[in-house]
Amino acid sequence: MGRYIAKRAVLLLVIIFFVSVASFFLVHLLPGNPAVTILGPNDTPQNAAILNHQLGLDKPLFQQYFIWIGHVLRGNLGQSYTTHQTTASILGQSFPIDLELIVISQLIAFAVAFPMAITASRRPNRLFDQVSNSSTFAMLALPPFVIAPVLVLLFAVHWHVFPGPASYVPLSQGLWTNLHAMILPSIVVAMGSVVVYFRLLRNDLIATLQEDFITMARSKGLTDRRIMWRHALRPSSVSLLASVGITVGGLIAGLFVVESLLQLPGLGYQLIAAINQDDYTVVQGITLVVAVSVVLINFVFDFLFTIVDPRIARD
Amino acid sequence: MTDEPDHDPTTKRLGFFFWLCVGFIALVVLLALIANLLPLPDPTFQNYSAPQNAGPGWGHLLGTDDLNRDIFSRLIFGSRVSLVVGFGSALIGMLIGGVPAMISAYRRGRTDTFLNTTSYVLLAFPALIGVIAIGEFWGHQLWKITLVIGIFSAPLIFRVVRASTLSYATRDFVMAAKALGASDRRILAREILPNILPTVVSFGLIVVATLIVLEGTLAFLGLSVPPPTPSWGNMLNEGSSLLAGGKGQTNPWLVIFPAGAMFLLLFSLNVVADRLRSYFDVTEVKL
Predict the structure, then answer these.
(1) Residues of chain A with C-beta less than 8 angstroms from the C-beta of B223
(2) At what angle do helices A280-308 and B109-124 cross, to 10 degrees?
(3) Is pLDDT larger for residue A75 or for residue A29?
């Protein structure tokens, strides 16, 4: 087990190194010259040369990388060329929004998928199971950029159940107003996860419920409810837990879509704004933080997975 | 055995619904191919004699958008972007991910270990962010978007093709072919490829659907093929920006039609892939 985790940790470091190099170089492939953007009407070759020197953009790329990574490791992600805010403070403002969306959406996903899977697996291939199977299958064909505008059209524009775009209020300025604006985007983000969680849990529960120890429990006269909660659910949750890490990485598309549609100032919204303004350092910082978070989340869940099911580490 | 049921339990059928979905995909492809021959107005033509944001009707079958353009025509021409990116990128991914995967899994050794680790590392990088960044640098022409998305799909395809090749590479019939002196190329093409093909094709259709979603997401964020070229993603983007209310007008049809078209296409691809997978899955046959 120790060796397995050590091996994974080395791989993690390799991946993070690669991610940092990729974020650095991808951004240097972006069009436009930040010096030109900053100088605006004062853009003369002399001014541009001076500014490029001040920003360190005239040094060789690999040297720029090591300077940059040195700053990053000390928590300095540079500052925006256009608004002069530090990248760290932009991240500090927008990350809580993504975190809140992720947490609420996953709570919704579990709240829907668990009861659905438990009810469906009790009587496989009967009406409820078939209906939930087909509806989750249909949801696979409803990615965030398709379902989000439809839900906004119905619930915000038509029925006014939820507030429309640009109605985000920070958590500190009112819990209810904040939550009210976050429910619709969270539902959009949750939909993909519901499908994954339901299908994994349903299949595993059906398999578990056919095992000998469940027959044993039945023959002892335990109630269905007790068998489900005390005996079947835990061994059936292993692949669900393993999938949470991967699912969280897959939420990025949903987050970006709802943030851009509803003008929520989260990481995706800031990233696209920064790209449109050729704001190198902000793009770099956000790319790095998002990519490294995804990698770390995957690693942590991988690790949890080996604790729940030690058989994994023996391969 | 007289009481044997008269149908053979091992024969599986693809079913009517499967063919309905195949038919829908074929229809979308056909309309995209012959779009120029159809009696449609130019999808980028701003017809000022037509009403703005009109609902479905006789003059304009599915109505018009905020720039007086015909939505039906934009929908038909817009399918080209999704289809080219979906199938084109998947094909590129198969070439640069699938072919090396077969060779690597068959030969094993250090190259295999290296490529395997590399695919892990590449998969860890969120594709959406990578495609956004490269698209920003390189441009948003259709062929560039297709190529970049194809490259990002390669590690995933590599993993699946490698896994299914591995499950055949040490089988007896491969050993027999080797003992008979068949070349590696022949074994890969004649012995292994036909066996992994069903898995690869049904997985390939899932990949096509995934890549169409990736392009649609980019287009929705305004980071794919630029306007006025129609695509389902940028139509949804236009419909959504009207929802935001900034222009003081709304057009629900500009959301409903592209969303519906996208749903039907993705749904059909998923159904076809799912049915093919269970059709070819021998373990599911009740012997």
Answers:
(1) 272, 275
(2) 110
(3) A75
Please tell me the number of Cα atoms within 13 Å of B24 on its side-chain side.
18
Instruction: Kindly state the DSSP code that residue B226 receives in the 8-state scheme.
Output: P
Q: What is the per-residue pLDDT across B8-19, written as a single tens digit (0 to 9) for each?
A: 445 567 889 999
The pLDDT score that the predictor gives to residue A314 is 58
Q: Is the ipTM of this complex over 0.95?
A: no
- More confident position, A128 or A239: A128
Say yes or no for a CB contact (<8 Å) between A145 and B138: no
Mean pLDDT of chain A: 85
Model confidence at B58, pLDDT cuts 50, 70, 90, reads: confident
More confident call, A63 vs B87: B87
Chain A residue whose CA is closest to B222: A272
Residue B25 pLDDT greater than 90, yes or no: yes
Which residues have C-beta within 8 Å of that of residue A131, sequence separation ≥ 6?
Answer: none
Q: Which residues of B touch A26 (CB under 8 A)?
A: 130, 133-134, 137
- Which residues in chain A are closer than 8 Å to B243, comparing Cβ atoms? 149, 152-153, 156-157, 164-165, 261
Give A86's strand partners.
A79
Buried b (16+ CB within 10 A) or exposed e, A239-257: ebebbbbebbbbbbbbbbb
How many Cβ contacts (< 8 angstroms) between chains A and B? 138
- For residue B177, the surrounding DSSP H or E stretch is helix B172-179
What are chain B's domains? 67-281 (1.10.3720.10)
Instruction: Test B255 with A149 for CB contact under 8 angstroms.
Output: yes
Inter-chain touch B243–A164, beta carbons under 8 Å: yes
Contact B144, B138 (CB under 8 A): yes
